[in-house]
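S.,

Sequence below, as promised.
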Amino acid sequence: MKDKQKSPGDLLQGTLDLLILKSLARGSMHGYGVAEWIHQTSEDVLRVEEGALYPALHRLELRGLLSSEWGLSDNNRRAKYYALTAAGLKQLAQETEYWRRMSGAVARILQTA
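The prediction came back faster than expected:
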């Protein structure tokens, strides 16, 4: 059996929701805008594929963490715009704190001899 190699830009499980919530903390965006913001802000390290992004947006909306409304994109195409709800903002704060604790713990372990 072959070892599955990670390709550049692969996300740790559970990270996508956090990145989506963080991107929408800046204001409402359509799905493509969310993916582009993540890609640009990560300095081209992270890339979110449509097959992962849109199910995640839908899941977050069903959980009440996002709201949505239809509008026109910059190129006058119909697009669904997503925004954080109060519950989404609270979830973002909780997940950010959890991520900071976990990444700090991993960093400490990696710094040992």
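The helical segments are 15-24, 31-41, 50-62, 86-110.

Coffee later?
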